[in-house]
C-alpha cells in the first residue's frame, strides 16, 4: 500500500521543482506564473492526501477554493502581462524597473 | 509491491519528469504542454486518493481553460527568445542547492517514522455506491456556503479586473453619438454647388 509519507514526499519534490523553476526562469514572467501553478498543485496534493488518510473532506473543500483563487490569479496575471507587453514591448522582468524600490 | 504502488510510482515518475522538463524547456509553448502533462499526472494521483471531483475539475479548469489561456497569451505576444535565454543558468546552482536542502529537510520530517503506514494506516476503499461529489456538495452548500459565495464574487472581480486592465481606450472604438445625430442640420450634410453646364455642342 502507498503510505501517506510517499504522497507528502512527492508533493515536496514537486514544490521544490517549482521553486527551482522560479530561480532558473527569473526573467520570463510566463514561466514564473507556470511555476507558481506547479507549486499550488503540490500544495493541493498535500491537502488531498491528508483528507484521504484522515477521512475528512474538509481538505478537499480547501483545494476547491485554492483552485478558484488560482484561476482568478492567472486571469489577472496574464492581463497584467498583456498590458506590460503593450506598454514596454517585452515581458522580461528586467524592463519592469519603473518603481525604484 | 502491489498494483497500487506500481501505479503510484509510474504516475509520480511522469509528474516529476514533466515538471522538470517544464522548468528547463526554453520554448514557452513546450513548457505549457509539459505542464499539461504534469497536471494530468496530478489528476491521476488525486483519483488514486479518491478525490474524483477535484481531479476532473483540475483537468477541466486548468488544462481546459487556464493552460489554453496561457497558450493564447504566448501566441499573442511576440516574445523575443534571445533576451529570455540570456540569463537562463545564472542562478541554477543556487536554486539547486536551496531545493536539495528543502527536499532533504522535508524527507527527514515526512519520513515513514512520522507518516508511515503504521502511523497513518491506509483507509478502506469506499464502495461502488459512494459518491465523492455528493459528499463534497453536502459540505460545500451547508457548512461552507458563505465562502462559496465569496469565491463566486472573487471570480466576478477577476473577470471585471481582467477586462478593465486590457481594455483599450475609447478612441479605437466606433460608436454612435446620439446628440450629434439629433442636432444635425441639412447644411451639414448636403452642400449645393452651382456649376455651369456645357453646351450641347460641347463648347
Furnish the topology, listing elements before pairings.
The complex is a heterodimer of chains A (101) and B (203).
Chain A: H1 4-24, H2 29-54, H3 58-88
Helix pairs in contact in A: 1-2, 2-3
Chain B: H1 3-24, H2 28-48, H3 52-76, H4 81-86, H5 92-109, H6 112-115, H7 132-142, H8 145-166, H9 178-182, H10 186-189
Radius of gyration of chain B (Å): 31 Å
Approximately what portion of the residues of chain B adopt beta-strand conformation?
under 5%
What is the CATH third-level topology name of chain A? Helix Hairpins
Give the CA-CA distance, first to last residue of chain A. 52 Å
Kindly name the structural category of chain B: mainly alpha
Largest interface: A-B, 71 and 86 residues
| CATH fold-type name of the largest domain in chain B | Four Helix Bundle (Hemerythrin (Met), subunit A)
| Total strands of chain B | 0
CATH-level-2 architecture of chain A: Orthogonal Bundle
* CATH C-level category of the largest domain in chain B: Mainly Alpha
What share of the residues of chain B lie within helices? 55-70%
> Which bin fits the share of residues in helices of chain A?
over 70%
Low-pLDDT runs of chain A = none
CATH architecture of the largest domain in chain B: Up-down Bundle
Shape of chain A: elongated
Radius of gyration of chain A: 17 Å
Q: Can you give the mean pLDDT of chain A?
A: 88
How many helices of chain B? The count is 10
- The tally of domains of chain B stands at 3
What proportion of the residues of chain A form beta strands (DSSP E)?
A: under 5%
